[in-house]
Structure prediction request, 563 residues.
Amino acid sequence: MEALAHARAWIDPQGEATLPQVLRAMDAQVPPATAGTVQRLPSRGVLWLHLRLQRPPKARHEWLLKLPMPVLDLVTVYQQDGGQWRAESAGDTMAVGRWPERARYPVFRLDLPAGDPRDVFVRIQHSTPAQFPLDLVTEAHHAESVQLEYLGFGGALGALLLLIAGCAAKGWAYRDADFGWYAGYAALTSLAMAAYTGVAGQFLWPHFGLLKDAPTNMLACAAVGAAILFVRKTLGLRRRLRWLDRLTLVLGIAGGAVAVAGAFLPKALFLPTVGVYICIASLAMLTASAVAWWRGDAVAPWVFAAQFPLVCVVVVSVTRNLGWLDLPVLPQYLVIVALAIEMPLLLVALFMRSRDRHGAEVREQALSTHDALTGLLAPHLFADRLRQVVARYRRTGEDAAVMYIDLVNHARIRDYFGTAVAEQSLLRSVIKLRRLLRDVDTVARVGEARFGVILEGASSRSSVTERASRLIAAGLTPLPGLKPDVTLQFHVAGLLLGDRPMEAEEVEAALASQLARMSPRTRRPIRFIEAEQPPASDAGDSSMFTSEAEAAHDPQLAPSAGS
Prediction:
């Protein structure tokens, strides 16, 4: 039952009244206490409550008096013990190990003999305006309610610990610092929640009372500072909104400074400082996510949705507790609910940002290994692959063919039709190459209009010639509907490692030299490096079109843009 409905209340403005003085004051006309009233005590004031209780003669249950308010500064309960008054104290300003009952909030056992009325006096000291809940409960009912409370807290903290462990493991496995930052932020926020709900004082530091109730507010400031730094990092404000980035950075660092100041500042100065900082930092964090959302950031809506309920609950609680605004009291579990909403949504935002960043890194790595226009391998990777093929041939005798292919009329296309059409011609060349090659074959762009191909397992010139001739024919075939109507002219130089074993650098130099000796108007666009001696003129070693003698008398055909 709610005990305030059966109590009388008296406020000691100076907080110096002794129990005999309170007894005399209570003998006068003292009004009954009103449940749900917000008590605004003077800076040194104390609220006294008087209860007259009597347990039924045949009642077997023991009764407890509890104040379910973990952040209550100090409460002292006076009971009669053999004609003397016995005092027991508990509260946030003293270590939980010194409480009469170790719990999340003050709980006192009542000494009520059956059928004998007893007077109980409660002295409450608290520095901020608050509603002071005062409940009478049987021991059995209290044990049941405590079990339900810890079931909820255990589930919430267990989920947070699992989330923290998962993010820490992911950050370690993928070497992603952002997940490590999130794990640190979530751990600090969980610790602040544990302190706010009284779980930390009961289980983590039950005998620590040096800083009194300062750790709760210090952890709250540190958690808000970590939150705003994490939001700043997740939103990437440094690249998008420089002024907002500087503001959030200053506020994030200030959170740590205010938290440390709690160990030195008096409570009368520290509490308003904490309230001002938490309100400003929370609203700035919400504003940052809203501005980023308005600027089109895809991650910002998730950050805003995560922060909005928590910021609302925190700002309302702080302003109401400090007496700045006359707002309704919010249940403590609403903070836990807001945290339960915030953590997963922030994790979704982190996953989205991590995906975008890793995608950019993959594209950046691809630019160093692949040609940006065609998507083919870069020249240095082609050279590495060629060295491997040559080494394997020397070791196992596995043959392979190497081809250099020039798009001969690329420069003329660029001069007549512009860069866009020239790039389109390169892309068309890649498409035609892909259709003629196997998935295991290596193809790379080794020059502006030159492609390198490695055909592993090829041991005859006929298979290479067949692919090269099909490529040349495909390039000269007009493409229906293409505007402008541009054909592609290819020259091919080939080498079989079985015919002429050479080092990789020598292979590349020989093929490039063979292409350089070919006239743009030659009738023999396919040529091989001979096994015995390389050619010394425009005449190639072998051809599917002409002989050596005919190669020296190529007719001077008039070139055209489409040839």
Residues 149-367 form one domain. Confidence is low (pLDDT under 50) at residues 534-563.
